[in-house]
Design goal:
Helices cover 70% and strands 5% of the residues. By secondary structure, it is mostly helical. It has a four-stranded antiparallel β-sheet with strand order 1-2-3-4. The longest helix is centred in the N-terminal third of the chain and has 23 residues. The radius of gyration is 34 Å and the shape is flat. The two termini are 49 Å apart.
Length: 556
């Protein structure tokens, strides 16, 4: 547990929880160390059980049973435990050694007990702990070969009843449910280990169905239910490898499962079973997948399965056929096909599909990723005018600053920006006129002129048609060197409402404006006017100590 730092704790907790955690260092008791974990009790409003874990690839994680921690947050109690551990770099190895020694002592003690003493101890635990009793009952039923009893016990373990409030398992209880459900997975895995893989196949499929029936009633924000589903899928695969079931039956189940809602939890891939199915079973998988896709060419599960099988066999044309059967109206599917063809080393076919995507767009505008792809292809093949035409069409449909910048880049490369700029600005001026009549929300014209560093035109447009405060500030910053008096009036107008507000963010904005105003006065040759203005402002704002401190730091 030496692989984390104070900075890691601060990043996970945030400044507020980290600061509070520093006040709980004396409240940490019962610290224990294991392989990649540290636990302790942290005393606050209550005594909270806290654990830090360091795993790959997740890195440092933590769990605490305080209300804030149960919501999935890295709380102050976890910070306190982490800081305590970091403060004991020499003692932790000794504590770890003592913990391992205690485990060894316990093993030795258990080994020395007689059969009757061990039975008495187990019976005592069964009487006191219902979870232990359930696990052992499941093990006993499994060893007897009582499949009906095992199935009943698994159903109990997957039942959400004891965790659900009003029929729903909240986030705070989801992990406990996941731990209980994991016992069912372990029991099924034990069947394979004890020579009964066929029973494990049957029970794992039943468990998948049971889990699917309750998944909508569980808050799985932490992903514990998904972990159980993935473990079930692994158990099923291991059981199939041991039992070598009928290839056709297994293929039919796999395809049916992949096309059902059950696969959301387990994400079973029929290709993982290729060594089990053999050629006969894989042929059945392909035939069934093809039949399902032909019946529902727009179904997500059907398309995904067909695509996976086609890619695995290296059949690019089959992959294209799957996508071509359900083309998006904005050309985004055409782009997917183009990229598949690029990967297959067929750039000419890829270009044709991309251009077809632009041509076949209906009732909408082309996806920007498709436009970007084509423009990049055109630029690299020296078709600069085609790239300009595509950017111009995109700008005409989406008159945004980003689209304007993209048009400018393409037109400058083709040495025709002046003409394209005049046309683009004409469109933006028309939009500005319509905005004044209430049809548009913001003057992109001013942003475009500012981005072109055309200060005079931008100032005229802002004065004529209006601009928001963000644009006025950017305009003043650009114009300050050549129009200091105009810029000063903007800064003063923006500063005035800030003088009536409080908060560090406000003070930083006001200070920035004052620095700009000082520069304007300097350029105008009137520094004394700024001195008088600042003195009056400081006199009126003197109760705001953080503001005064900030002004002092900037020499104001």
């Amino acid at each position: 547990m030496d692989g984390f730092t104070e900075a890691d704790l601060r990043a996970l907790a945030g400044p507020r929880s980290f600061e509070r955690g520093q006040g709980y260092l004396d409240a940490v008791t019962g610290l224990e160390v294991g392989d990649g974990w540290i636990t302790a009790t942290v005393h606050g409003t209550d005594a909270y059980e806290v654990e830090l874990s360091l795993d790959e690839p997740e890195g440092l994680t933590g769990e605490c049973d305080c209300p804030y921690g149960m919501d999935g947050n890295f709380c102050k109690h976890l910070v306190a435990l982490g800081l305590t551990a970091l403060a004991r770099p020499e003692s932790l190895p000794r504590q770890y050694a003592r913990a391992r020694s205690r485990v060894g002592d316990l093993d030795a003690w258990l080994a020395a007990l007689s059969r009757d003493e061990l039975l008495a101890l187990v019976r005592e635990q069964i009487a006191e702990d219902r979870q232990v009793r359930r696990r052992l009952e499941l093990r006993a039923a499994s060893s007897r070969g009582d499949l009906a009893e095992v199935r009943a016990r698994i159903r109990e373990l997957l039942d959400i009843g004891r965790f659900a409030r009003y029929g729903y398992v909240e986030y705070a209880d989801a992990r406990a449910y996941g731990e209980q459900a994991s016992q069912a997975v372990s029991a099924i895995a034990a069947l394979t280990a004890t020579g009964r893989p066929a029973d494990a196949i049957s029970l794992s499929r039943d468990a998948m169905r049971m889990l699917s029936e309750v998944q909508d009633s569980i808050d799985d924000s932490d992903g514990c239910l998904g972990e159980v589903g993935a473990a079930l899928a692994e158990v099923h695969l291991d059981a199939c490898r041991a039992a070598r079931p009928d290839p056709d039956e297994t293929a039919r189940w796999l395809v049916g499962h992949a096309l059902s809602d059950l696969d959301d939890l387990t994400d079973i891939d029929p290709l993982d079973y290729e060594d089990i199915l053999g050629e006969q079973g894989m042929t059945t998988v392909r035939e069934l997948a093809l039949e399902a896709w032909r019946g529902q060419r727009t179904g997500w599960a059907e398309k995904y399965l067909m695509e996976r099988l086609a890619k695995a066999s290296g059949d690019v044309d089959a992959v294209i056929a799957v996508h071509a059967a359900d083309l998006a109206r904005d050309g985004s599917t055409h782009l997917v096909i183009a990229r598949e063809l690029d990967t297959a080393g067929r750039p000419d076919d890829a270009l044709r599909w991309a251009e077809r995507g632009i041509a076949e767009v209906s009732d909408t505008t082309p996806a920007i990723d498709l436009v970007d792809y084509l423009c990049d292809r055109y630029t690299h093949s020296d078709r600069l005018q085609d790239a300009v035409a595509l950017r111009r069409a995109h700008f005409a449909a989406h008159r945004t600053l980003a689209a304007y910048q993209q048009l400018r880049t393409a037109a400058q490369a083709a040495d025709c920006w002046q003409a394209q700029r005049e046309q683009a600005l004409a469109l933006l001026r028309a939009d500005t006129a319509q905005r004044e009549r209430g049809r548009y929300g913001g003057p992109v014209l001013i942003d475009a002129l500012l981005d072109d560093k055309d200060v005079d035109a931008a100032w005229q447009a802002a004065t004529t048609t209006g601009a928001d405060d963000r644009q006025w500030l950017a305009l003043a910053d650009q114009a300050r060197a050549i129009r200091p008096a105009d810029a000063l009036r903007v800064y003063q107008r923006l500063a005035e409402p800030l003088e009536k507000q409080t908060g560090n963010a406000v003070y930083e904005r006001l200070t920035s404006l004052l620095l700009s105003m000082r520069d304007c006065h300097r350029r105008m040759g009137a520094p004394d006017d700024f001195t008088a203005y600042l003195a009056a402002l400081r006199a009126g704002q003197k109760r705001k100590r953080n503001l005064m401190r900030l002004l002092d730091q900037h020499g104001l």
